[in-house]
């Protein structure tokens, strides 16, 4: 284990016999800083990915028609609602077919009634002169036990699919900034209705394009969204002018513009890998610019500085002399055969040392058990062990 660690360190921080000690340590420290910085960035991005943070992008559309909202009424006493539609051409129509009969709900402890008009929609009057103008809901308490006063009447207004959509969305773990949509829809569109009052409900339509929690979106963040439609409403009260009613609600659009909020993941797996890979490439690019690569381009900016260039070249020359040039008239010298073979061996070892440190390491091409560390160059000739 220790041997493997030493070998790993030696491979990651190779030393050259011709390298200045100060530059070698500066190179090692810089490489450690690069690796440490990339690891810290990796941890930070991994934490961001685990948070599943999202942002909302907004888009506005001129939608026509705007569907009428669904309304749910709750009272402590039995009641009924008469529905009337008003149009811009001054005509009216009966819309009681969209009103359900009241029933007693044990869970809420009161009487419930729903208004849902899938066929009714508000066109922009600038585009349609005969468009629907208002929907009037006249609320009458029919319970014989009611003697006047407070009927405990409340109303909740929503898009027709909002309640089921929000119920479905609430089963999925939500994220910061979006988890409040369910409570916002329920609270902002819930109202208490008092006796002898009429109300104008002005509303606008919003859409939340919620990003699905699936493998595809976690990986790339593209494509799969579910649209949840909601309304934003304002209830304005004024003295009741409807005879014989408990309260009166008139529904009208506040805006014909539909705002779509689309969820986008701040960070996905592909973004994470790209960011970490990019910062690693950037850090190593700076390192190679300063110190050069391991073999093919061994000198960078640091080694080529005026104050270091001469010392670097001198150190390389001293590590290889007197075996350079690598080829020379050895055989023609007045030497014995053994001396000539010894001189050729020294030059071959010096050439191998040069190739290993400045071209390509022979450790990457020789078989296991035949590493060049087993070959020793004569130290007295200035060539260290390979």
TrEMBL record:
Q: Where are the transmembrane segments?
A: 21-44
What superkingdom does the record give? Answer: Eukaryota
Presence of keyword Transmembrane helix: yes
Keyword set, alphabetical order: Membrane, Transmembrane, Transmembrane helix
Transmembrane helix in keyword set? yes
Q: What is this protein called?
A: 7657_t:CDS:1
């Amino acid at each position: 284990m220790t041997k493997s660690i030493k070998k790993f360190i030696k491979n990651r921080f190779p030393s050259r016999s011709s390298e200045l000690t100060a530059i070698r340590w500066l190179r090692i420290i810089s490489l450690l800083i690069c690796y440490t910085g990339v690891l810290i960035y990796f941890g930070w991005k991994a934490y961001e990915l685990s948070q599943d943070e999202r942002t909302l992008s907004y888009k506005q559309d001129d939608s026509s028609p705007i569907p009428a909202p669904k309304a749910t009424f709750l009272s402590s006493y039995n009641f009924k609602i008469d529905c009337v539609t008003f149009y811009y051409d001054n005509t009216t129509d009966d819309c009681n077919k969209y009103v359900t009969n009241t029933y007693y709900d044990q869970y809420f402890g009161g009487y419930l009634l729903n208004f849902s008009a899938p066929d009714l929609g508000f066109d922009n009057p600038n585009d349609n002169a005969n468009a629907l103008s208002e929907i009037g809901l006249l609320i009458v308490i029919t319970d014989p036990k009611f003697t006047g006063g407070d009927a405990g009447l409340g109303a909740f207004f929503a898009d027709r699919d909002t309640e089921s959509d929000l119920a479905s969305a609430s089963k999925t773990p939500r994220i910061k900034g979006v988890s409040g949509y369910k409570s916002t829809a329920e609270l902002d569109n819930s109202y208490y209705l008092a006796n002898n009052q009429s109300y104008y409900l002005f509303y606008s339509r919003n859409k939340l394009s919620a990003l699905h929690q699936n493998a595809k979106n976690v990986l790339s963040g593209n494509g799969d969204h579910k649209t949840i439609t909601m309304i934003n409403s304002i209830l304005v009260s004024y003295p009741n002018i409807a005879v014989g009613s408990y309260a009166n609600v008139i529904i009208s659009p506040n805006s014909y513009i539909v705002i779509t909020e689309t969820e986008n993941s701040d960070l996905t797996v592909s973004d994470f890998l790209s960011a970490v890979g990019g910062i690693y490439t950037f850090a190593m690019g700076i390192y190679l610019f300063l110190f050069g690569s391991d073999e093919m381009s061994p000198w960078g900016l640091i080694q080529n500085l005026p104050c270091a260039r001469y010392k670097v070249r001198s150190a390389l020359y001293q590590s290889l002399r007197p075996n350079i040039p690598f080829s020379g008239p050895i055989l023609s010298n007045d030497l014995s055969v053994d001396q000539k073979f010894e001189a050729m061996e020294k030059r071959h070892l010096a050439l191998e040392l040069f190739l290993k440190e400045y071209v390509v390491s022979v450790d990457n091409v020789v078989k296991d058990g035949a590493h060049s560390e087993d070959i020793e160059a004569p130290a007295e000739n200035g060539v260290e062990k390979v």
